[in-house]
Amino acid sequence: MNFLQAIFTSLTSPLFYKLTILSALPLMFTAIGGVYSEITGVTNIALEGIMKLGGFSAVVFTFWTGNPWLGLMMGMVAGLLLALLHAYVSIEWSANQIVSATALVLIAEGLVSFLMKPIFGEEGQSKFVTKLPTVRIQWLKDIPFIGDIFGEITVFFYFAIFVVIISWFIIYKTPLGLRMRAVGENPKAADTLGVNVQKIRYFGVLMSGVLGAIGGAYLALGDIGQFQEQMPSGKGFIALAAMILGNWSPIGAMFAALLFGAAEALNIQLQSLLDIPTEMKSLLNLLPFVLTIIIVGGFVGKTKSPKADGVPYEKE
Amino acid sequence: MAIKNKKINWMPLLVPVISVLFALIIAGIIIVLIGKNPFMAYGKMLEGAFGSKTAWASNITKMTSLVLTGLAVGFGFRAGVFNIGAEGQMSVGAMFAVMVGINLGNVSPVIAIPLTMLAGMLGGAFWASIAGVLKARTGANEVITTIMLNWIAVYIGNYLVSGPLAVGQGTPKSPEVAMGAQLPALMTVQASSIPSSIITAVVVALIIYIVLEKTTTGYELKAVGFNPYAAEYGGISISKNIILTMAISGALAGLAGSVEVMSVHHRIFGSFAGGKGFDGITIALIGQNNPIGIIFSAFLISSLRSGSNAMQTVGIPDDIVTIIQGIIIFLVAADRIVKTWIRKLSFGKKEGEVK
Asked: The domain that contains A270 carries what CATH number?
């Protein structure tokens, strides 16, 4: 099959759209997590590490208890703890946020690889564990095309819808959201008006930890029911690109995540449809990464980051 | 106050030292948690790094490319650029070095060696410049772009050794570079040897030191790193310096790739850098981005790496080194915490926190 035929075949199959959504899910949670952190003025490039530790912990506790829901909860706790370290040094000690986050990515990577063998007895991947369920809606499933996409889909899909809506509501419709945005734009003015800058920033960073961990947990508990050591293979950073492209808004992040999801879905589809040598096929894996560079390079000037993003705030 | 000022002079040295010690203690606790003896573990580590002549040789071999990746990251930091992509630049440097090196046939080493080194530097500089140009032109965050470029380099490397450059059976690999492009050993100790490239690495560190401390270019780069707005006000072009910094930083990482090819493997196996580019971040931060400091911190990290291989023989995964590095970087990022500890230790409780 040639290139154009392959693209046409993918775009007309429901599988492509399902793959787009599934590939977008981890990015969506994590990018929205990034939104929470950055609109309060703390950058968080540790999301890659948070996804990794979150996904790993989710699988470990599912493995130990047999209950993936409990696993998901513990994954979220692990993400929260890693984010807490970042919050503590960024907020209390004016640490260099980029360097601190890089350190946390390394710590998460080291810790996860270090614990694989003692816990699962082997390196590389974990034992298979119970996945979180899929939700099947019969009347939806009976609709042609759409039914193939949404009729039976992971419960994470519904979490994602919930997270997008509730985050939009929190950030734009509540006093808390107004304070978050104020702290990220002009912490000094917010402080003068009696907003507790530190508390708000803690909230933002900790939310990014919880959501990043859900993103990581989806990869393991929603998709394959196993943790693999190379997870999330750059998705934490791609999520940051989605956050930028989405102009630091939850709805924007959702659409941006879907775009990256489409690139990933196209990559998967083309690899199975095209008649080219294997080594050429694996080269298609570049697609999401190249797209990220183009987006980060092409849109940064056109989107508007919070003014105090990455700037420590110190009371005089 | 006078005493305080005197103490501050020691801080650049004390912060990394305390951070390293603290990281080793935490890692020791983690080793206890998986039911192993940390003293035995660290004993093994020392043995693996310094216990024999062979250990020293492999330690110094590892140190060579680490000095260069440390310089790459440190040079970027000095000019205000966080080049987290030394990993990818090193791989691309190695790819370029191999592509030139395998075509050199019977060319004399006098020409082949500099040519192959230059190819690696060009490869690394090219790869880093993509991020540099994007940052200068559109303000794209170099952390995200260089990480994406790392991944792209991995896939391109795997493609090269399983496609156009593939040779032989088994592990995908490229052909060996020409004899003339292989660096001779400085001295041979039993089965292993100390590569002459260690001299290259140290000389490059000295050159970078001179460039940063004694030249106008170095002054401008540091000015941009210290305060870009003031520098621009003073007539220094920020975007020119960002691109230049990335190119030099990438060239250093690329050189790490070429010496690794020319003196250790003589070929590439797909994704190539194996974490050495990421180690460069720790090395630069421990060395406080000072080229001379980087030589010593590269030796520290190469010792940890060599030692961790020995630790694996008593059942401790070598990933412990990644954890140790993460903790060190974390503490260097939060250096105010460490400074407060140091002050509390040396002055009792009176001095209080330094914010």
From this structure: 1.10.3470
Could you report the per-residue pLDDT of A168-196, keeping only the tens digit for each? 999 999 999 988 988 888 888 888 888 88
pLDDT digits (tens, 9 = 90+) for B162-194: 888 777 777 788 888 877 777 777 777 766 777
Q: How does pLDDT run along chain A (316 residues), one tens digit per residue?
A: 677 877 788 888 888 898 999 999 999 999 999 999 999 989 888 999 999 999 999 999 999 998 989 999 999 999 999 999 999 998 888 888 888 888 999 899 999 988 888 888 888 888 888 888 888 888 888 888 878 888 888 889 999 999 999 999 999 999 999 889 888 888 888 888 888 888 999 999 999 999 999 999 999 888 788 888 888 888 898 898 888 888 889 999 999 899 889 888 888 888 888 777 777 777 888 888 888 888 878 766 566 677 878 788 877 6
How many Cβ pairs closer than 8 A exist between chain A and B?
150
Looking at the 3D structure of chain A, how many domains does it have? 1
Q: Which of A238, A290, A300 lies nearest to residue B140, judging by beta carbons?
A: A300
Tell me, what's the pLDDT at B271? 66
Range of the domain at A213: 3-300
CB contact under 8 A, A301 and B139: yes
Interface test with A, best of B22, B32, B73, B151 (most A CBs within 10 A): B151
Is residue A295 situated within a structural domain? yes
Interface subset of B 32-91, CB within 8 angstroms of A:
34, 82, 84
Among the partner-chain residues B134, B151, B158, the one whose CB lies closest to the CB of A297 is: B134
How many CA atoms within 13 Å lie on the side-chain side of A73? 5
Q: Is the residue at A314 inside a domain?
A: no
User: How close A81 gets to chain B, by Cα (Å)?
Assistant: 15
Whether A234 maps to a domain, the answer reads yes
Out of A113, A283, A293, the one facing B145 most closely (by C-beta) is A293
- Residues 119 through 178 of chain B touching chain A, CB cutoff 8 Å: 130, 134, 137-141, 143-145, 147-149, 151-152, 155-156, 158-159, 162-163, 166
Nearest to A102 among B84, B155, B166 (CB): B84
A60 neighbourhood in chain B, CB within 8 Å: none
Q: What pLDDT does A98 receive? A: 82
Considering only alpha carbons, which residue of chain B is nearest residue A243? B144
Structural tokens at position B187? 């001295």
Quick check: is A311 in a domain?
A: no
